[in-house]
Amino acid sequence: MKTPIIFSTFLLAFLSLSSFSQIDFLSDTNINTCSEVINLQTANLDLSTGQSIITICPSINTLKAKVVIQSLSLSANNSFCVYDGADTNSVLIGCYTSLNQTQFTSSASCLTFVLNDLDTATTSDQALINAQISCTDCQFILPQAVVNSSEDMVIDICLGDELSFVNQTTYPDNNINYSQSNATSTYVWSFFNSTSTQENPSKVFDTPGLYPILLQVTDVQGCENTSQVLTVRVSGPPSFLGTDTMFTSGCLNDSLSLYGAYTPDTFGLYYGTVGDSAFLDDVVGGQYNVNVEINEFEIGQILTDPSDISSICLNIEHSYIGDLDIRLTCPNGSSIELVGYPNSGGSTYLGEPIDDDSDLTPGIGYTYCWIESASNGTWDDYIETFNPNTLPEGDYQPNESISDLIGCPLNGNWSITVEDNLFSDNGSIFSWNISFNSDLFPENNQFADFSAEIISSQWQVNNQLLSELDTFIGFNNEIGFNTYSYVLEDEFGCVYQKDFEFQIFDQGENGCPVLEIPNVFTPNQDGVNDQFTIFSVGAESYDIKVFNRWGKLVYECATVGHPSECAWDGLHENGQKLNDGTYYYIIRALDAEGKDLDIIKSKGAVSILN
Questions:
Q1: CA 388, CA 303: separation in Å to the nearest integer?
Q2: I need a labelling partner for 314 at 20 to 30 A (CA). Which of 61, 363, 387, 419 fits?
């Protein structure tokens, strides 16, 4: 076992002197300058005892260590690794065997350099390292941005909207020690499901949630500042559970009942969706690995309970679960197995793949989530119990408990790794995300769960307003195909609707009741059109009332059976002959149970011509 040899931390003071020295990489030597050219040389060094570590930290908090490796030459058995921080637990910048005029600048303060022996069988190696050590005295950077000239810090938009971000970073200390400008700075925008290095990027938001927009600005001296410049809230579609029409087709003048109900979408901070598809080839060891940087929690905050992670979700299609190994890794390198290889999946599908090795067209992805207490058990549990051809979308338990990640920092890089371990069978990964318990966020954090309030609701028929009430009772009055829509608008101005399409049949079509009523008759006893007689199909009884133009009842008849039993000969109820003119009727038809048949409930006018 190799035993690390850890060397002194070098404190750099900002001094205006320059000197040259030769420093053995294994000696305990302090470098008390921010301007020195050094030669780190290990001649015939026995590295079999372990690794050599040197850490350089400025003594002034506002300074950052900057080291230019003028030349580096190592044998293939060694490596020279650089870490952005005070120890080897810091972010690894990279490992090298040769460098030439390469600059490393710490993001905060320190840099750590490690010389590793990669082959303990080699006991004699030579390492030549020439470097210029200096410190960067950083001037202040104030990242700022606007959207569409708005001064709002919280931008509320609808699903699928595109925003154009305008960088308005300022430099309050410009020209005190050096010149700063947007033209000489570099940028990294973090949208939490993608990044951009453009100065003024655009972004389409196609997943509902809360998005803190981070902007990292690095100036010409390598000094940087990362700030949250905006918050974007993307409204999600409400649930229409309870919205119904109680029928699928109907007859003209049938009663129509529309019931509208909704529940607004509620969500919190949304992390880590990967926007672009990734192809998972059928090469053994083919791997999909994507990091998500999270920094919304308090400094030093750690995972203390499995419920701290609400879910880990992956949208994927693949033609053979038995190939796969899936792991989640937290910022300190600890990981858990979500799905292990080998497993019981065999040829079970994920999503709807195209099961043809020669066809690389993506199939349809299903979303699978891992939750500590999911009732479905693990993938293996579900497959062994139900033996499905396709694993259903839903929540499953990870193979290894989320409790194994207790102690992980919440801030930092979280990553998911999907590895294909067998030849044949491929798939596509469309996105992944990790969600945390909203109780973990700092008090009064603006990313607590929220809902966009619904401010209006209405029923429409064929895109025309029908009612502004959630419940509408009326009658079918349009023959043919009709689209009834329950339409909602939320406080962001986002519009959602649920459509129902029905065919409305005319009288006599598709079994609809029929009512035929004459508009004139001639009760002159000539044997032609002497009576006011209605024709109807679908009713059991009728009630007919006829009024004169002053509203006085002149005729009434009720019958069970054929309506001809209520034929009217144009006489008053007292037997007197009525004058020519217009009379008004109300006809009511009932079914076998005595209920109104709305379709043949009719009001109208009939003329008498003697």
A1: 35
A2: 387
Helix (H) or strand (E) holding 70: strand 63-73
Cβ contact 383:364 at 8 Å: no
Per-residue pLDDT at 231: 85
Count of alpha carbons within 13 Å of 144, Cβ hemisphere only? 12
Give the DSSP letter of residue 577: B
Phi-psi region of 272 (alpha: psi -120 to 50; beta: other; left: phi over 0): left
CA torsion, ordered 589, 594, 597, 601, to nearest 10 deg = 30
* Block mean pLDDT (10 aa), the chain, length 610: 24 25 37 42 43 71 70 74 87 84 79 71 48 68 88 89 94 86 91 81 87 85 80 89 80 83 76 46 60 76 93 86 90 93 85 78 84 93 93 94 95 86 73 80 62 93 92 83 94 94 82 80 90 77 89 88 80 89 87 58 84
What is the structure's pLDDT at 182? Answer: 93
Rounded Cα gap, residues 549 and 528, in angstroms:
25
DSSP 3-state assignment of 497? Answer: strand
3-state secondary structure of 277: coil
Residue 554: the pLDDT is 93
Instruction: For residue 160, give the DSSP letter.
Output: T
| pTM of the predicted structure, to 2 decimals | 0.49
Residue 273: CA count within 13 A, CB half-sphere:
16
Q: How far is CA 19 from the centre of its chain?
A: 57
Q: How far apart are CA 86 and CA 103, in angstroms?
A: 18
Which amino acid appears at position 21 of this protein?
S
Which residue type occupies 144?
A: Q
Q: Amino acid letter at 311?
A: S
Check: CB of residue 104 under 8 Å from CB of residue 66.
Answer: yes
**In 525-576, at which residue ranges do the beta strands (DSSP E only) sit?**
535-537, 541-547, 553-560
Rounded CA-CA distance 561/539 in Å is: 8
Q: How far is CA 53 from CA 26, 41, 89, 234, 438, in A?
A: 9, 14, 13, 47, 40
Residue count of the chain, please give it: 610
Phi–psi pair at 403, nearest 5 degrees: -60, -20
Residue 537 token pair: 């199909």
DSSP secondary structure string for all residues of 221-271: TS-EEEEEEEEEEEE-PPB-TT-B-S-SEEETT-EEEEE---B--EE-B--
- Choose among 431, 432, 430, 423: nearest CA to 281: 423
C-alpha dihedral sign at 301, 305, 311, 316 = positive
- Residue 336 CA to residue 415 CA, distance in Å, equals 11
Count of CB atoms situated within 10 Å of the CB of 450: 17
Q: What's the Cα-to-Cα distance from 404 to each of 306, 372, 379, 399, 408, rounded to whole Å?
A: 8, 11, 19, 11, 9
Rounded to an integer, what distance in angstroms lies between the CA atom of residue 254 and that of residue 474?
8
